[in-house]
Amino acid sequence: MSYRVYIVDDDRFLLDLYSVKFKNAGHDISVFGSGEDLLAALRKADIPAPDAILLDLVMPGIDGFEALEAMQKEHLAQGTKIIILSNQGKDSDIERAKQLSADGYIIKASAIPSEVLAETVRTIENGAHI
């Protein structure tokens, strides 16, 4: 099964790395370098919501938590699985992600791209893993 996935990270190398991994597995990928770019895309009514969004937390401008808050407030990407993909692994960050209805939390430094891919598909198909 092919899924539509948005990847949001200010690190161009990681965007390219994850994008290639997901595309090679047959998924439709869109990448965004900031929370602002993600929100602008989600606000376009003519584009179907993605199945999942992989969202970094630490980014200049609108960070991942601020993007999540805006998505909730504006009712954007409803039904989309939100997976935090960050090097921030503090319990307080994970708890805040849960409170903001994130469906998954992956610590970048602890997961190779194939594990990120597998966890994303698992979350889309089976629900929250946080």
UniProtKB/TrEMBL annotation:
Domain Response regulatory: 4-123
CDD domains: REC
GO biological process, one term: phosphorelay signal transduction system
Any matching Pfam family: Response_reg
Keywords assigned by UniProt, alphabetized: Phosphoprotein
Record-listed 4-aspartylphosphate modification sites: 56
UniProt entry tagged with the keyword Signal: no
InterPro entries linked to this entry: Bact_response_regulator, CheY-like_superfamily, Sig_transdc_resp-reg_receiver
Stated name of the protein: Response regulatory domain-containing protein
Native source organism of the sequence: Candidatus Kaiserbacteria bacterium RIFOXYD1_FULL_47_14
UniProt lineage: Bacteria, Candidatus Kaiseribacteriota
